[in-house]
Amino acid sequence: MSALGVVIPGTNITPIVERVFSEKRGDDQLPVIKLGTGLIQSGDTPNDLVVGVISARLADAYKVDLGSSSPAMLNFTGFDGTTKKNRPNLAIGDVVFARVSVANKDMEPELVCFDSENRSEGFGEVAGGMMYACSCNLSQSLQVFDNPVLELLGKNLAFEIVVGANGRFVLNSNKPIDVIRIANILLGSSTNGMTWVAERIREIARSN
Fold it and tell me: What GO cellular component is one of the record's annotations (predicted)?
């Protein structure tokens, strides 16, 4: 069997999977491939809510970096209320919160800035705050409505968070130092557990 290379988060592993599964071992069993935390296969899942960064502006669309191997497309028509005279005005480097509307392995993902019921509240440019990268497992757990870490943080600290399923979140708070502290808690929560989270929150509360 041919040797496999190392893959990192964002690597398109489809060619590797196809090559490995086209080869059989001597015992006629197919090998098992395990994906580590945060590894992304080609494309994204339709209806995923993602945090992206504008990487280019085209005639009628933006290219958006989602942290994967290829950019996504965000057409001007993907914004609520867009007309020929009223177009979105985003700059390269701006952060957006969007929904994946189309995704398959043969084309770039397409994004829109409204939900499946055409409600645009909360979508679009994410102004202010700091963006952090994390594993996809962590970001997707933070999207759960009753996530215990966010619930405990919300009872003790004032902050705003926008979470993408693609391993990114944006934090904002009236106190910049709290943004860093909260981010450290979120990033450490998956490996340290709720007891550790509660201790870190108490430390922040005492310092405030």
Answer: nucleolus
- Indicate whether 158 belongs to any domain: yes
How many angstroms separate the CA atoms of 184 and 191, rounded?
12
User: What pTM did the predictor assign?
Assistant: 0.77
Evaluate whether residue 34 is within a structural domain.
no
pLDDT digits (tens, 9 = 90+) for 57-110: 999 999 999 998 889 999 999 998 877 778 889 999 999 999 999 988 778 899
CATH number at residue 165: 3.30.1370.10
The residue type at 34: K
pLDDT digits (tens, 9 = 90+) for 162-187: 999 999 999 999 999 999 999 999 99
- What's the domain count of the chain? 1
Element (H, E) at 167: none
Residue 164 lies in a domain: yes
